[in-house]
Write a structure and sequence with these properties.
Length: about 150
Amino acid sequence: MRPYAFGSRSREKLDTCCEEMVEIAELAIRRTPVDFTIVHGFRGEDTQNALFDSGASRKMWPESKHNYVTVGPDGKCLPASLAIDFGPWVNGGIPWEETHMFALIAGVFAACAIERGYRVRWGGDFDGDGLSSDQTLLDFGHVEYAGISE
Ligand SMILES: [Zn+2]
């Protein structure tokens, strides 16, 4: 029921993302008309390279936006993924074929980013021209922090 809230597994994954992405996602889960789950935040070397080997990702560690880290106050590296992978959450699962639901959620992310003065880039339109048909890679469940808005 709306407003939705992240479950503990989504929360854990979200907490491996950069603070701007956390801020945008926390707003998005309250505003979305359909529930969604977080599939990936930060991905370590083994996970990233396993996804590359399987063909699910085109990037090897540490080239993905999911591989970003920041330096914590103690000087150690902390996960700070610029990207999250999400999926609509319907009846306890992700309906992967329902691409319109992914687009709807990505639109909520985009609106929430603008509201906070940020920009996001969506995997269904990596070049940001509004079209999905001109993309060679479609990753409908991927959204990444792309800086502050102009
Ligand atoms: Zn992704």
